[in-house]
Amino acid sequence: MISLLLACHAAATLWMTGLAWFVQLVHYPLMAAVPPEAFIIYERLHRQRTTWIVAPLMLAEAALAAWLLLAPPAGIGHRWTAAGAGLLALIWISTFALQVPLHERLTGGFDERLHRRLVRSHWLRTSAWTLRSALALWWLAAA
Prior knowledge:
Layout: H1 2-30, H2 36-70, H3 78-106, H4 112-142
Helix pairs in contact: 1-2, 1-4, 2-3, 3-4
């Protein structure tokens, strides 16, 4: 059972990490190439469609991380599951304190300064998910 839990946790975390890197290196930078007359509809559709992919995975990852935090597997320990949960909390705080408000402001039209802030601030999530992936793979190997 623990191995299945760790495998599901690793899968959700690795998926989100890959998505974060794609968004960081491809998707967000390409937003600057959307023609101004199409940007408002592009941003609205981006938010709608991205939510359908990201929300279930983020919720699953959070539930699995909480489970691991409350019942750390033998050989991993609470300190490491707490570190993983802390990274996840940082991701969620960054998402709702930085990226979501920036996307909301961009729904009014492309703004180069806001776009730069979005790309730069997303590095926090990309880095945190990368560290979480390393932890998730280590936990899986330790099991």
